[in-house]
Amino acid sequence: MIRSVLWILLCLSAMGPFVKHCFVFGDVVTCSDIVPMRHRNDVISIKDFGGISDGSTLNTQAFREAIYRIKHLKRRGGTLLYIPPGVYLTESFSLTSHMTLYLAKGAVIRATQQNTWSWPLIAPLPSYGRGRELPGWRYRSLIHGDGVHDVIITGGENGTIDGQGAMWWNMWRQKTLKFTRPNLIEFMNSKNIIISNVMFLNSPFWNIHPVYCSNVVIRYVTILAPADSPNTDGIDPDSSSNVCIEDSYISTGDDLVAVKSGWDEYGIAYGRKSSGITIRRISGSSPFAGIAIGSEVSGGVENVLAEHIGLFNMGIGIHIKSNIGRGGFIKNITVSDVYIENAVKGIRMTGAAGDHPDDKFNPNALTVVKGITFRNIWGVKVQQPGSIQGLSNSPFTGICLSNINLYGVPGSQTSPLWKCSDVSGAARLVNPSPCAELASTYGSGSCMTSF
Q: What residue range is the signal peptide (predicted)?
């Protein structure tokens, strides 16, 4: 735990808020080798296709023609599309397989803020049954990939993808949206994807959304949006497997990282889980959660590791959430070596969070939550240490707390307490003392291997 705190302090003192290369002392543990970085010998520039970097000329056609060339004039080993310094305004465009989108230092791909008619509409995800915000279709992401593989988005320091989301946020606030807002980047039905060394700004909706994907690496990214920007989740792996998220800084208006797998009856029917998710060396701030699972977990979430996390000015540090009607499962989750500073709540687990796509959900479809380990968590200025509240017909089991210290706000007149119901497990070295449902069972049962 001391080593983890030293890591955080070193990173913050050395780099300020833009933490991109922060490692634990000693050997660097990484999962990024699940997708090797590929060198491309064939290189083309967006300027070869008429790209203009004045920040006002629309470059949609240039991007589409360049990617058409990559797709149809196949080169052995694929092709790198080079984006030189400058600001390239564009509408939505789609990537193809065997390509690298490389943003030079000072290069900005910026979404147009023209009327929404210029944004293509695509079908709702089958595991959601409708757009996430509104019934019907949804706007396609600024940068999109469907059924692609061997794709890299990377660049020089401060290469930026700017969603110019203010227009979309205002429509959401004014309730004038006709369809669900676009993500900044979405990969669907894709594999062997790398996103690294790029800054993402002001996404209209979720920032990076790999859905129905496998073998995805997201590393060395910075994701920024105002704290009041609605639903600007940082990274949302969704019904995906073998996802590595490391060494990044995220400050947005919603969850920093949220693992999902479908929504109510649609996610249950689609039945694709998220599994093999590693989240490591992530820092950031948000009025919502740092590391979240759910609330859309209808396809199931299992085998998630989140470790060496630094969270500042948070709503909730770690949030595991589902709802009646979700079904699915959340199991074999480990969260360790976390530092939380200034948060409303340190840890929250609940079976009553999130909304529904419609009224057709099955109220008897309850999420099974078991095998959840929290260890080596240190927090200061945490107003309430935690709440773990399962459902009477689906208690949370195997909830293991170890070496957790969550200190309250100095000068507060009340002592923060844990709140628990319909939960079983065990606790060891937890301060303030956890609820009796956990404290009374230390030393036996499913938590023995977690301590």
A: 1-21
